[in-house]
Inverse folding.
């Protein structure tokens, strides 16, 4: 017996499933409504249009990729970086071509909104990285200064984490650089 989907979270779960199996391009109001076993009109009660639905699914995928809630906050900073790198590596299998497709959506008419949602996710991760860095008692705080602050370091590390996804930097090189700095 088919269950009827009745919450935004369940709809987003279906959207993520469609993105995993068929890609972001396969997400539309009709396919999601059919997969949720609800009337198309019911889906419009949750999302005004396809763009709004796709943006919500993209944001949900970013959150799923980094699943930060599973990570302890009292771990060493380097362990957290390795955790984030493993999340990205796992996402390649879970959401094939997400980064390429996502960037194409960023060039569409909803570019600014999609970029804002992605950046909000990234800001959350950076804030958590900073908190973990500040709580890591093994780090020599003298490696930071006014011209190279903890925030500068977090921005550098996070940007390079994203570059590992594009295969522009080797993750082992990044880990070694971090070890040498902190």
């Amino acid at each position: 017996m088919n269950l009827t989907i009745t919450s935004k979270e369940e709809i987003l779960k279906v959207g993520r499933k469609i993105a995993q199996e068929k890609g972001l391009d396969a997400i539309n109001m009709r396919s999601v409504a059919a997969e949720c076993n609800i009337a198309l009109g019911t889906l419009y009660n949750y999302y005004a249009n396809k763009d709004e639905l796709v943006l919500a699914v993209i944001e949900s995928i970013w959150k799923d990729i980094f699943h930060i809630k599973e990570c302890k906050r009292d771990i060493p900073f380097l362990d957290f970086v390795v955790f984030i790198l493993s999340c990205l590596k796992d996402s390649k299998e879970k959401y094939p071509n997400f980064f390429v497709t996502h960037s194409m959506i960023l060039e569409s008419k909803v570019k600014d909104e999609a970029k804002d949602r992605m950046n909000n996710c990234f800001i959350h991760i950076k804030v958590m990285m900073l908190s973990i860095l500040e709580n890591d008692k093994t780090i020599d705080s003298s490696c930071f200064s006014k011209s190279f602050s903890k925030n500068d370091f977090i921005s550098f590390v996070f940007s390079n984490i994203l570059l590992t996804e594009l295969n522009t930097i080797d993750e082992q090189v990044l880990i070694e650089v971090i070890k040498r700095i902190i």
Observations:
- The mean pLDDT is 88.
- The radius of gyration is 19 Å.
- The chain is about 70% helix and 0% strand.
